[in-house]
Specification:
heterodimer, A: about 270 residues, mainly alpha, about 75% helix, B: about 350 residues, two-stranded antiparallel sheet, 4 strands
Amino acid sequence: MAISPFLWTLWGSFKVQGDFFSKADWANAVYGIRTLAETGSTFTVNGYSNAWIEHEFWRSAINTSIVVFFVVIISLTIGTLGGYALARSGYRYALWLLMLALVFRAMPHITLVSGYLLPFFQWNIWGHLPTTIIVLVAINQPFTLWMLHSFFLNIPKELDESALVDGCNRFQAFRHIIIPVMWPGVITTGLFSFLLAYNDFAVTAMLLSQENQTMVPKIASFLGSTQQEGEVMSAVAAVVSTTLPLFVLVMFFQRQIVSGLTAGAVKG
Amino acid sequence: MPHRTFIFFILPSLLSMILLIAVPIFSAMTQSLFIAHKQVIRVSETCDPFGCKKETSVDAEATANLREKEPLGIFNGFDTYTNRNHLAAAEIKTSWNVATGWKDLFSRIMNLPFYKALAFTITYTIVVTPFVIVLGFLIALGTNSLASWLKGPTIFFSLLPMIVTPLIGSLILFWMIDADGIIGSTLQRIFKDNDLSLKASPALTWIMLIVYGIWHSTPFAFIVFYAGLQTVPQETLEASMLDGASLWQQKRYVVIPYLMPLIIFVTLIQLMDNFRVFEPIVGFNASANATSLSWIIFNDLRGEDALQLFGSAAATSMLTIIGVGILLIPVLIMIWKEFNSKTV
């Protein structure tokens, strides 16, 4: 039930519109009758070449890679520092900050975009990739802080406290003791940062210009032109191209994703 | 940890959140009190032997200058909140006086854009959430009793609807439901109605969007419950079996009470997340029949230069944030109680 829509779309992306959207017989999409008639073989990469070359989807792929790479790196850097502090604080205000972060996380992204647009236009920073990167880092911080703080809570206090006793300051303790052991938690959190940056639509659609768009808003812009014959297949091909890396991700990182989702939710 | 060290560690993160989450909310609040400048109209008079003629035209240059000098616009107070596109105070008052009954009043209010969006958002939230919980729980129970070698792949496949971009997930389903797509044409054949389209009526569109929402969010509930099921104390379960409890009774009296904190946690998170529903409406192209609060903000903001309605979007944003705040209260109470019962 969960996977059949993906398989169907993947299979159909190699056909022409007449087959994928065949009113006469859905089996046409399976066997590719019209595809055979129109292109000479039952499989065609027309949809893909249309999307990637003519519509320059490769540009969007590069934009997505840049945005995602920087969002994950920056997010994890400041998130580990913050999460560590929250885990080791010992004071009540750490709880207040975490609850504040939760309130921030609940804000619908589009309401924040509503606040951004006018100032960004005024200061001329709209439409640039770095702006979007910083925005996505900030929006992601609450979730990152919560996740990393709960991972750090699981690292025994004794480890860094013994470093403090030995004369390190906090930052040195963090660098030499904590960083080597924090990787499992960091990888999991990094995965979720990746997903947020990769999958985002509200922010990237509104803050990037036509040339700069990442993959998801680019697909949305395909939708405007789907009335022409064959155009919708570019969108289908683009959708499959965008989803494939996610498949690979889940396949290799399934355990981390599961542990991340349950961290903090399940006690003991 | 001394306060100074704490501040150094957390400063970048805190600063980014304050600058880019807290401040924009205030920015939206400010913007909601203003309304865009109207275009500057110039009346020019041309006189020829036949008489003088007045001509009105838009003075584009003056309009652009005005907009640049005062980008926020004209102060409008709370009027944007009460105009027809938002709380529609005047329209509701008229409807109240004119309506012929509850049903009529209801349909009149539904014609107002904000209330239409609010109705869908609330319906979506309170229908999707329980289905997600129940379905996630059932799938978790089912997966738990599968053979070990099947568990891994099942979890893999079940995770996918959640990992995939919401917009893309909704597009994939949309193409299958389209009248020419596999599900759409099959339905037409089953009901022998060539005009049947899931996009036609508001009710069907709402159902479609809700089905998508359930498909997309169930994996989260499933994973959390599945992990929780791994930690159910075996002794209690075995004791109940010895006492002669049937499978169903075991579930009801042992498993569910044990998982209750998790169920509450997932419910509250789902309520918050579902209230923000937005991408499916774009993916399903459903805005004619179903709009959500986030969607009408988006709609106000997109469009070429002068057509963006910042004030209107900001007002809707503030109202949405108030709604989210209301939903947040139980979550915050729950977390407060939990943290109070153990040392941080």
